[in-house]
């Protein structure tokens, strides 16, 4: 008599993947703009040759707050990007 085997379930058939979602750069910039607008700040893009750097500007005081902003780290810090989300490679 053969042993009764458990029938395969959907979880068994699905490949195991890390639970991360990639967000493209433009979508992240839109999220950041929306969140920063409430505080009177903006993310500006400074393109020099082939280099691109992001600047955080306070529009109320017309001053530069931060230079060379790491978008992914900054978005996680202010809560715009969830822990399971990551920035898509360029």
Strand order of the largest sheet: 2-3-4
Morphology call: elongated
- The rounded Rg comes to 21 Å
C-alpha termini separation: 58 Å
Largest sheet: 3 strands, antiparallel
Helix/strand-derived category reads alpha+beta
The SSE string, one letter per element, is HEHEEEHE
Mean pLDDT: 89
Q: What is the count of helical runs?
A: 3
What is the number of strand segments?
5
Helix coverage percent: 25-40%
Strand content range: 25-35%
Could you list the spans in which at least 5 consecutive residues all have pLDDT below 50?
none
Word description of this protein:
The chain has helices at residues 10-13, 25-37, 71-78; strands spanning 21-23, 41-48, 51-58, 63-66, 85-87. The strands form two sheets. A three-stranded antiparallel sheet has the order 2-3-4, covered by helices on one side. Strands 1-5 form a two-stranded parallel ribbon. The termini are far apart. The model has no long low-confidence stretch (mean pLDDT 89). The protein is of the alpha+beta class and 90 residues long. β3 and β4 (63-66) form a beta hairpin. The chain has a domain at 39-90. Helix content is 28%, strand content 29%. The relative contact order is 0.21.
């Amino acid at each position: 008599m053969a042993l009764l085997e458990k029938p395969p379930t959907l979880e068994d058939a699905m490949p195991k993947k890390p639970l991360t979602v990639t967000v493209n750069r433009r979508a992240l910039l839109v999220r950041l703009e929306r969140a920063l607008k409430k505080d009177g700040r903006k993310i500006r893009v400074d393109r020099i040759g082939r280099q691109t750097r992001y600047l955080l500007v306070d529009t109320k005081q017309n001053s530069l707050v931060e230079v060379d902003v790491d978008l992914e780290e900054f978005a996680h810090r202010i809560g715009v990007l969830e822990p399971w989300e990551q920035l898509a490679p360029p």
